[in-house]
Amino acid sequence: MAVPGEATLDDAIAFTRYHLEAMKGSLQSPTAEQVARALDHPLPRFTKQLETMHYIGEYALEDTHDDTLLELAKINSNLMRSLHLKELKELSFRDRVVEIYFWCSGMIPDEDQSRARLLFVKAFALVSILDDTFDVAATIEECHSFNQAMQRWDDSAVSIVPEYLRMLYVETLSNFQKFEDVLEPHEKYGIYYAKKAYQLQSEYHMLEAQWTNDKYQPSFKEHEELSSLSTALPMLILVGLMAYGSAITTKELLEWTSALPDVVRAASKIGRFLNDVSSYKLGKNKKDVISAVECYMLEKGVSGDEAMAGIAAMIEESWRVVNKACIELKPTLLPAAQLAASAARTCEVMYLRGRDGYTFGDHVKGLLTTFYLAPIPL
User: Where does the source fall among the domains of life (predicted)?
Assistant: First the structure.
């Protein structure tokens, strides 16, 4: 519930953490496991699907548990697992698809939002290849040609794209056409916002590639502004909203979200900072743009540990911006803030304790195996 400038809850958090740490050794199961998990990662920043997975087992250990309720929870969890596996079968078209789908199902967990999950994952997969192209595969000249074609967004522009990138270009346009095709007639206007956001994504990657090519040293503020947008979260949030359906999504909501309100920027900063801390700890590709940690170190003249501590404080402040939006926004705009908050939660899970569960599948292999391949015994 903490928002920017909230001092009272700072005291409450410190008080609570101190006492929970002190009583850890004397607690019984399942309270001991719940406290340990909360101290490791706060419950409001954990995805619903993972907390459910933990809590079903813990609830069974409570003396006062309701057997009928427990059985229904297990059945529901297994039904959701079956739905996730069915959706995954439709998406087996590239590397890292399971990690991408896990990310997506953390953001969009509701059973009735299958269409939004499928479109989200496909857009995520495309933008991941786009990112790899600008970061690793293409020369600066090829980056310029590809971005020029992306801004034209027309089949005829394929002629200016390097030959090895033409399939990516054609598939991008084709997939967005398929996105439009699955929308109802009164929903199709939403594709305009998704396309524009994807074109902006190409522009962001182009500028990062130019920085790397020119060996340009951005200020931390410049880096924060561009790199948070290049996470693709603003675009992916729009894709998710576009696919939610007219019962939730309106033109007002898409217009507001595409203008990059504070809550979308804050969630994107959380994703960027967590990713960059992980990259700093694990080592990044030599062609990648300078990370937020490195930029902070150079500008402030501090060590890596000090830079990570400073960035952790910025992550905390960004969470408070997200909280404020979820508390104060009017109902018609709230779905965007809730989706942004869910995106930030999933980033927290994927990059927990400096791991990178997206780039390195082994980091979350056990979690994915448990979640998708281990039904809860009834």
Answer: Eukaryota
Q: Is the pLDDT score of 360 beyond 80?
A: no
Alpha-carbon distance of 167 to 302, in angstroms, equals: 45
Kindly report the CA angle at 190 between 188 and 194, in degrees rounded to 5?
Answer: 125
290-317 residue pLDDT tens:
889 999 999 999 999 999 999 999 999 9
Instruction: Give CA–CA dist 43/29, Å, rounded.
Output: 18
Task: Name which residue leads in pLDDT, 48 or 92.
Answer: 48
Q: Which two tokens stand for residue 85?
A: 């596996």
Helices within the chain (DSSP H only): 8-23, 31-40, 48-59, 67-89, 97-107, 114-132, 140-152, 166-182, 190-214, 220-229, 233-244, 251-258, 262-282, 292-300, 304-328, 334-350, 365-373
The CA-atom distances, in angstroms, between 79 and each of 75, 83, 111, 376 are 6, 6, 9, 10
Buried b (16+ CB within 10 A) or exposed e, 285-294: eeeebbbbbb
* Amino acid present at 261: P
Q: Are residues 344 and 45 in contact, defined by beta-carbon separation less than 8 angstroms?
A: yes
What's the pTM value of the predicted model, to 2 decimals? Answer: 0.90
CB of 335 closer than 8 Å to CB of 249: yes
Please count the residues of the chain: 378
Q: Which amino acid is at 170?
A: V
pLDDT in tens, 214-254: 999 999 999 999 999 999 999 999 999 999 999 999 999 99
Smallest CA-to-CA distance from 155 within 173, 168, 181, 140 is with 173
Residue 286 has pLDDT above 60, yes or no: no
- Dihedral pair phi/psi, residue 221, rounded to 5°: -65, -45
Query: What DSSP character marks residue 133?
Result: I
